[in-house]
């Protein structure tokens, strides 16, 4: 990793980061949020995205509402919070929206458990709640994963074309609590050596619990790691979640027309792995897409997470499936000087990412030419508005 400037840190494929940044210079971000639920989040100890099991069911719904309405209608607490008291990452994305009022917002439902009080939400074909990764049947079947991928592709092509014609680039973010465990499930299903590489919303990470849940899924299937390297969408259906094929399709389709930021950490690395696997296996024609138009953008808390390895994941994906020029970078956020103890919890390893926080933060800092310390007061203001 290397500091490119005060605003961001280069993580992987450093040689093409400046090309990507140049491609979005002068463009306005268009923000899409792909929201879903997986019962994986209820496996004890694997997620800190919500204080109780009941509230974890509302986290993604609340995130959708906050960006659309400026508040979470479904939560009295204001924003989803970590059991530590750290506010959810929606405070960061909310601050970016306040700074860039011209940023378009499109929420996308690919399997929410509780629908938000938002009329403009788009529901993709194949959307449904995912079962726990430990079941070995996270989605109904491979056909459902295919529907999500191709409906995502269709939407991505549409949004990419609209962005290209209107001076925008596309941010695709996610909110799916429990998603780092399903990311591990998909990565191992594809045969990538991802053990202890995925990040977590908790400081200690729960690698053993995540790995045990995925192993239970493999056992239920009677299969082993790498069993789905040649059938990646079947791997999603077995051990992934509904966000993964939808976002992979959206990103690949949109890349034909415009620059795309994947807003997220190791969950989005799993999406990149899925895309690379689909190209490797001939399910997507490499000449039809432009992976160099795609960048994975997260936060410093993920890229510098001592219990994970985002750049190592990037390398492992290409070792398995060959060159796939998607660059990784992180917004260089720092909450150590925040006046709010809850926000300072981020520096202790809580929360880290979600709701496209890294991509939204970088978009805001680039658009308004702010350094991270200059952006911090705007995030604190969102925290005050949403939580206090």
From TrEMBL:
One of its GO terms (molecular function) is nicotinate-nucleotide-dimethylbenzimidazole phosphoribosyltransferase activity. Signal peptide: none annotated. InterPro entries: Nict_dMeBzImd_PRibTrfase_arc (IPR002805), Nict_dMeBzImd_PRibTrfase_sf (IPR036087). PANTHER family: PTHR38811, UPF0284 PROTEIN SLL1500. This is TIGR00303 family protein. It comes from Candidatus Chlorohelix allophototropha.
């Amino acid at each position: 990793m290397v500091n490119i400037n005060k605003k961001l840190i280069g993580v992987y494929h450093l040689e093409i980061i400046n090309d990507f940044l140049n491609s979005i210079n002068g463009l306005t971000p268009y923000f899409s949020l792909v929201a879903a639920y997986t019962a994986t989040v209820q496996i004890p100890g694997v997620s800190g995205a919500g204080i109780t099991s009941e509230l974890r069911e509302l986290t993604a719904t609340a995130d959708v509402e906050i960006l659309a309405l400026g508040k979470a209608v479904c939560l009295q607490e204001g924003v989803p919070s970590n059991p530590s008291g750290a506010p959810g990452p929606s405070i960061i994305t909310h601050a970016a929206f306040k700074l860039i009022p011209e940023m378009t917002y499109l929420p996308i439902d690919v399997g929410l458990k509780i629908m938000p009080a938002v009329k403009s939400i788009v529901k993709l074909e194949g959307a449904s709640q995912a079962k726990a990764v430990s079941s070995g049947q996270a989605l109904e079947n491979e056909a459902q994963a295919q529907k999500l991928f191709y409906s995502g592709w269709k939407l991505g092509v549409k949004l990419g074309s609209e962005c290209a014609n209107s001076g925008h680039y596309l941010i695709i973010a996610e909110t799916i609590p429990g998603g780092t465990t399903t990311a591990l499930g998909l990565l191992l299903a594809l045969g990538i050596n991802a053990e202890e590489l995925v990040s977590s919303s908790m400081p200690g990470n729960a690698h053993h619990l995540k790995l045990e849940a995925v192993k239970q899924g493999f056992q239920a299937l009677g299969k082993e790691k790498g069993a789905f390297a040649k059938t990646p969408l079947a791997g999603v259906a077995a051990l992934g979640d509904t966000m993964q094929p939808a976002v992979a399709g959206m990103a690949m389709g949109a890349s034909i027309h415009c620059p795309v930021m994947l807003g997220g950490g190791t969950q989005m690395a799993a999406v990149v792995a899925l895309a690379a696997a689909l190209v490797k296996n001939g399910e997507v024609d490499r000449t039809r897409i432009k992976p160099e138009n795609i960048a994975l953008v997260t936060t410093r808390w993920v890229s510098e997470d001592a219990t994970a390895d985002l750049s190592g994941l990037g390398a492992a994906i290409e070792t398995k499936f060959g060159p796939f020029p998607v660059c990784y970078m992180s917004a260089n956020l720092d909450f150590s000087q925040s006046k709010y103890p809850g926000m300072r919890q981020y520096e202790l390893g809580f929360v880290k990412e979600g709701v496209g926080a890294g991509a939204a933060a970088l978009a805001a800092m680039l658009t308004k030419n702010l350094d991270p310390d200059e952006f911090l007061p705007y995030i604190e203001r969102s925290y005050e508005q949403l939580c206090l």
